[in-house]
Amino acid sequence: MRTYPDSVRFLYSLGNEMRTAKLGLERMEVLLAELGHPERACRFVHVAGTNGKGSVCAMLESALREAGHRTGLYISPHLVEPVERIQIGGRPVSEAQFTRAFNHVHAAAEDLLRQEALEAHPSYFETLTAMAFLLFRELGVEMVVLETGLGGRLDATNVVQPELAVITPIDFDHERYLGNSIESIAREKAGILKPGVPAVFARQRPEALRVLEERASELAIPAAHTSSWRLDSLEVHRDGHRSLIQGRSGCLHLECPLAGEHQVENALTAVAALELLGVPVEAIERGISRTRWPGRLERVATAPEIILDGAHNPAGVRALAAYIRRFYAGRPVWIVYGAMRDKSLDEIAGLLAPLAERIILTSPNSHRALRAELLGAFFDHPAAEVAPSVEAALERAAAAPPEAAVFLTGSLLLVGEARKLLLPAYSR
Question: Could you give the domains of the chain?
Answer without folding.
Answer: 4-289 (3.40.1190.10), 298-426 (3.90.190.20)
